[in-house]
Amino acid sequence: MKVLVLGSCVIGVTTAWYLAEAGHEVVVLERRGGPALETSFANAGEISPGYSSPWAGPGVPLKAVKWLLMRHAPLALRPKLDPAMLEWLLRMLRNCTAARYAVNKSRMVPLAEYSRDMLRQLRAETGISYDERSRGTLQLFRTQKQLDGIGADIAVLDEFGVPYEVLGPEGCMAAEPALKYAAGKFVGGLRLPGDETGDCQMFTERLAAMCAERGVRFRFDTEVWRLCKEGSRVTGLLTSSGVLSADAYVVALGSYSPMLLRQVGIKIPVYPVKGYSLTVPITNADAAPVSTVMDETYKIAITRLGERIRVGGTAEIAGYDLRLDPSRRVPLEHSVTDLFPFAGAATQASFWCGLRPMTPDGPPLIGPTPIVNLYVNTGHGTLGWTMACGSGRILADLLSQREPEIDVSGLTLGRFQKKEPRRKAPRRAAKPEKNPEELQAG
Ligand SMILES: Cc1cc2nc3c(=O)[nH]c(=O)nc-3n(C[C@H](O)[C@H](O)[C@H](O)COP(=O)(O)OP(=O)(O)OC[C@H]3O[C@@H](n4cnc5c(N)ncnc54)[C@H](O)[C@@H]3O)c2cc1C
Description:
By secondary structure, the protein is an alpha/beta fold. The protein is built from 11 helices and 20 strands. The two termini are 25 Å apart. The model is unreliable at 423-442 (pLDDT under 50). The site of flavin-adenine dinucleotide has 41 residues, from helix 1, strand 14, strand 18 and helix 11.
């Protein structure tokens, strides 16, 4: 089949790779001048199946209020008259029960683990390098209360068979020797040795080059404006480079996916949650982290990427506003200089922000849509780098009518699809009940 993949960040490019491997003729359309120039550009660099959790969980609404009021707050909410924001927040709240959390997590962990395994396989087959390291991640607790509260997380890790180590301060310093310069500032940590790290942008750029060697065509500076539909099929795309058509279409536009899909009557609950990062040049390698240290207090990830440290965090719910708020730099700088005071010059760091394409329940949306030749691969939220290779492979399998290697029933649009309204013997013809969780397809 000829397949048009829309979007060339980490999800679009991994999708293109696996589609090409499956024998399809692939063209990637991207409005920017190259791959990985939006959210996949400077994320925190964690490949972290161990931390694959939905944000919506029991206790989160209360914690969110606390976070909003904190100094160096990890969360910011800029309310707008935006029905999509309100709807997304309400849906997220509804997912904050223990039962929903368990279901959502059980959909995310297998995908993240599968994805990490796919990434390892890809690395072995192609030799792709991207400042990668396989040295685990360390969640660092500054207070005893945080350390005492890890029971629920550990139960989940046990349930999914994810290896972990609970460490005291000495153990943390053995895993991350440069933490000795911050001794006394933390009481312990939870280490996930199976996690990995790497530069998502470098990976995407290099994989795009490998895709091109295999015959995938990239059309950069091409903005997709409209999906054209006839009956139950997409017949073409109206783009800034003219009308383009194919046998099948994959929407991998991150936070911008809902706009395009809405044109053909498909409503997906994906909303942007802005995050920020700093990239700090290392001046003293011995004083820098060896892998990822997750500063639990501020919800900030500090990752070693070659000769740089990437510091990522903050969840700002502010719509599609991509302005760099200078006040958001402060918590990132504080965290990295507090834990790794001699590693680099944080004042010379480059500052960046991106929009995480978040679903309200956590798992992404991968697979077919009610329109027969239209597919989605989006909504990866905080874990798009972690889940990219698995998601790309699954999409290619589904499009090629092959059975994916893991159960994907909880990852498709089906989970938001219209349920039959329950009928209560109406006295007169009633309008069907509107289920707020439903996918509206037309
Ligand atoms: C601060 C921060 C830290 C993060 N840390 C991590 C981490 O440590 N680990 C992890 O796994 N994940 C992390 N993430 C999440 C991860 O970066 C995202 O989930 C991932 O980058 C999403 O990739 P994507 O390809 O779906 O979307 P994007 O990267 O946003 O790509 C969408 C692409 O579509 C293109 N596009 C949009 N509209 C159009 C159009 N109309 N026509 C043509 N092209 C269009 C865009 O230009 C862009 O290239 C982090 C995110 C942030 C913000």
